[in-house]
Amino acid sequence: MLIHLGFVPVTVISSKEAAEEVLRTHDLNCCSRPNLLGTRLLSRGFKDVGFTPYGEEWKERRKFLVREFFSLKKVQSFGYIREEECNFLVKKLLESAVDQSPVDLSKTLFWLTASVMFRVAFGQSFHESEFIDKDKVDELVFEAETAQASFTCSDFFPIAGLGWLVDCISGQHKRLKDVFFKLDALFQHVIDDHLHPRRRSKDHIDIVDSMLDVMQKQRKDDSLKLTINNIKGILTNIFLGGIDTGALTMIWAMTELARNPEVMKKVQGEIRDRLRRNKERITEEDNNKVPYLNLVIKETFRLHYPVPLLLPRETMAHIKVQGYDIPPKRRILVNAWAIGRDPKLWTNPEEFDPERFIDSPVDYRGQHFELLPFGSGRRICPGISMGMATVELGLLNLLYFFDWKLPDGMTHKDIDTEEVGTLTIAKKIKRSIWNLPPSPPKLPVIGNLHQVGELPHRSFRRLAERTGHVMLLHLGFVPVTVISSREAAEEVLRTHDLDCCSRPNLVGSRLISRGFKDLNFTPYGEEWKERRRFLVGELFCSKKLQSFIYIKEVECNFLVKKLSESAVDQSPVDLSKTLFWLAASILFRVAFGQSFHESEFTDTDKIDELVFETETAQASFTCSDFFPIAGLGWLVDWISGQHKRLNDVFLKLDALLQHVIDDHSNPGRSKDHKDIVDVMLDVMHKQGKDDSFEAHNLI
Q: Which residues make up the binding site for heme (predicted)?
C-alpha cells in the first residue's frame, strides 16, 4: 500500500509474501535507513548501528558489535550475570510474598532487564550505579522512545522549513534535545568511569571496555574507526533496545498467562515436572528442558510485537514488490503486527494459543516471515540471542518459584490488553479498574480552570465542599488531585510519602531554581537527597542554629530601639515592613554575613518588592504548565509577557546573589562568623570531581 504522509510517500507492507520480497529477495536494495530528525539527533548524526544508513561504516560497526558483544560465545559468557540478576529478582519477590505485598511486575521486570544490561554493557550494578536514579530509568527509556516515535513535522514536511518551524513551536525540538542531553550525560559518566585510572576492579570486559580499547589502539589504516560519538551512539542502541523490548515481552507473556489460566497451569506444570523439585537456583541449561515455555514466548511475540512496525527502511534502487514498482529513496514500513494477526496465516488469530506452534517450524529468528519480532535480513536485530536469554530465564524463574493470582476483586476479564504506542508498544492501564476521585463538571480544553480564582486555596475549599475532600480537577490538560482533609493529608504525607514526595516540572520553578539545582523544587532523587543532607548537616543542625542566636538577639534589640524611637516621636509604624526587615536582617547576616541595613548589594526599601515579584511570578498562571501540548501554552506565555516577567525576576535575583558570592570570594573580606555562603563555597572549593555540589547549587 502506498500512503502519503505529508509530502513523503511511504510504502506499507502487510503480508507475509510482500515482507519476504522486501526482507529477503530485495534485502540489499532495501536495507538503508531514512534520515529522520529524532534518529539523527539521538544517534549523534548516524554514528550508531541501528539507524545509520547502509554503507561500509555501518557494516564495520555491526560486524564489531556482533563479534564483541552478540556472538554466541559472548552471550554464553554473560550467563552467570543473567543467573545472578534473576536470583536477585526471586529474592525480592520472595520478600514481597512473605509480606503479602502486591508486586508491580512491570517495574520489577524492567529492573531485571536493566540490571543485566548495565552489568553486561556498562560493567556496573544497576542497583548501585552512581550515574542514574534507578527509579527513573524506565521514565528515561519511555521519554527517549516517545520522542523518537512522536510525529515530527520536519520528517514529513521537509520543504521550505515549514516542518522545522512547526517542530520549534510545538516543542518537539526541545523534547528531543532534552532526551539527548539526559542520555549524553549518562553515557559520558559511564565513559569517564571506564577511563578513570582508579576504576573499581571489574569482573569482565564489558562493551564499553571493548569499544574504548579499539578506539585507543586503532591505526590510520584500520577499517573500523571509533570515536566517542560512535560509542555513545552504539550505547544508545543498546540502552533503548536492550532494556525495553525484553521487559515488555515478559510483561505481555505474564499478562496473557494471567488471562488464560489453563495455559498458565500447563506451562507451570511442565516446568515443575521437568526441573527437579525444591530447586534453589535456575540455570540457563534449564531453558532447553521446557519446550512449552518456548511456545508461550512465540505466541506472545505473535500477538504483542515489541516493535509492531519494524524500523523504517529506505530503498537504494528501483525494485518490484508483488508486481508494484517502488522507486529509490522510498520509505518502507513492514507492519509485522498485522502479519502476526493475518487470518490467512493463523487460525483464530486473536486468541492466545501457544499450541498452534506444536510441530510447526515457524521461529522468530528472521527466517519465517509470518513471525518477525526482530526483523530479518541485513537489518535484523543483532541482539536476538542476548535478549532471548534474559526473557527465557526471567520467565522460567517467575513460573517455577511463584504461583500468580490477580488482586482481590479482579478477574481475568478485567485485564486490559490495549497498547500504548511508542517506538515499542507498552501495555495501557485499564482506567475502569481505577477508583478515581470525584471531579466537578468541567469545560472542554480548559477543564476546571474557570473555577479557580485569584486565591486558589479558597476556590478549592468551595469546590471540595460540593465535590469531596479528595477531588480530581483538570487544569487545562493537566489532572490535579486536591487534598482538603486531615485524613487524606495524612495518607499523602505519611503513608504514601515516598511515592508522593517529588515535584512537578513547572516553568517558573525550573527557571528560578536554575534547572532544579536547588532543594525546594528539585524532583525527588539522589541529587535532592544529597543536597538536603548537606543543608541539614551543615546549616540547619541544632549546633549551627544555636550559634546564630546572638544575631537574632542583636537584630531584635535593634527592632525594639527603632520602635522606641517611633513611640517617643509618636509617629505611626508600618508593622508589615518593620517585621519584614527584621526577618531580612537576620537572614542577611546568617546567610550572607552582611548587615541588611548596610548592604551594598540591594536597596533595603526595595527588597520586599523583589520578594513579592518573585513569589508572584512563580505563582502566576503560566499557560505552558497547563497546556504543554503543541506549543500552545508557550506561545500564550510569550504573548502575555509571562516569560519576560519570569526572566526579569531571575536576572534581578541572579545579580544580587552573584554580588554576594563575589564579595565572599574577595580575599580581603572581613567576617565575624562563618555564614551559609562561606560554608557552601568551602565545600565547592574542596570537592573532588566525584562530588555533586556545584556553583549552580550554591546560587
A: 381
